[in-house]
From TrEMBL:
Its EC number is 5.6.2.4. It comes from the Bacteria. It comes from Eiseniibacteriota bacterium. Gene3D superfamilies: P-loop containing nucleotide triphosphate hydrolases, PriA, 3(prime) DNA-binding domain. One of its GO terms (cellular component) is primosome complex. Residues 144-310 form the Helicase ATP-binding domain. One of its GO terms (molecular function) is hydrolase activity. One of its GO terms (biological process) is DNA replication initiation. This is DNA 3'-5' helicase. InterPro entries: DEAD/DEAH_box_helicase_dom, Helicase_ATP-bd, P-loop_NTPase, PriA, PriA_3primeBD, PriA_3primeBD_sf. It catalyses: ATP + H2O = ADP + phosphate + H(+). Residues 390-452 are annotated as: Disordered. Keywords: ATP-binding, DNA replication, DNA-binding, Helicase, Hydrolase, Isomerase, Metal-binding, Nucleotide-binding, Primosome, Zinc.
Amino acid sequence: MALVRVAVPIPLAHEDTLVYEFPEETPEVGLRVLVPVGPRRVWGTVLGVEPKAPGFRVRKIAGIPEPRLVVTPELLELCRWVSDYYAANLSDVLQAAVPSPGGLTRRAPRAAPEDADAWLQVAPPRREELNEEQRSALTSLEEAIGSREFRAVLLFGVTGSGKTAVYLHAAAEALRSGGQTLILVPEIALSPQTLDSFRRAGFGRVALYHSTLRPNERADVWRAAAAGEVDLVVGTRSAVFLPFRNLRFVVVDEEQDNAYKQDDAPRYHARDVALVRAQRLGAVAVLASATPSLETFARVKAGSCGLLRLPHRIDGRPMPTVRITDLRHRRAVVAAVVAGPGSIASRPVLSGSTSPQSRYLGPALVEAMAKTLERREQAILFLNRRGHSTATTAARSGHSGPRARDAARPICGSGASASRGSRGRSRVSFPWPGSRVWTSMPRGSADRPRRF
């Protein structure tokens, strides 16, 4: 028997590890074990051998799962880095990284069998079918994979430019060199269709990994990745902790998405953890996005991240027309007027008119909506706020509050939920040159349908 120190996911007064008696002489570091803590049992991770016996009674571990789950030394060091960088308990990081039998009860749709109807009815393009921009980006990634050195690359391509096809063929190059690939997606719903695109490209040993799989399914993928029995894994942020035997290529799709941030303890950013892990392993990390984050752009500007551009859509498809309207400078609005059953006409309404006007809808938007409805088509308006939130801005400059960072901004609530200010339009004065008049602008989605 031996004494081992085990990380347990419970709050302790001074440390997050406890000492237990292990039934074997040479315990394996990283082994997942079931240990008693007070009246209950929890899953913990063996961190090492305890050199001397403590001055209190030591309890025995309650059990070892069969087949065994072991955190590899490389993954254990990564978890230590996450614990240190994000100021989280190591036991919490290990609990989030390693699947625990019986730890999950939710279920999610699994990947369709290979003989089932696929999500994508069209096979991914072959290498010779890629356009010049895609081939150039692919060549750069293949050279990076062949160098067996760490490379971080931003694959900056507009929507529909064929980014998936580029890193799909790059993953094939990693497979030919004997390596494994990890594809991170921001949402669980995207993982089956992403996996299917790789299956149709000829990848046989592939797997899904996310938090809502059944415990035994997650454990199977965990062991397969550690044994080198799977070549490619598609998963959400928790997949960044899989114990790959030879990880050579990592892709973070839609790298700007906030879903890569873990909301509860341990709080971490899967994109940044993927970059650190790729750096430690000497792998290639690709951050793919049509709208990259400012952090990634800063890495590119600093020279720590390469840049590959796909500025055009495949097959010459046109880009959508985007117009930005400055509502501070509008002098007229367009009111939609019902001219008869099933018909809508629009006409300009000058400022000062008694016809309906809007403080936040410009004439271009109203006219576009009117023409869309005249053609019996549909329109979608996206808002970035919910509820009855109201922001107060300067009528001329558009400033949203006093200069002082610690000064409270004027807020206008709605109904009983209002905590400050008053309903509707408000005029308040702040010492801001040229911005004497302030106006409340309802920006919440709860107020919009009535006004439309």
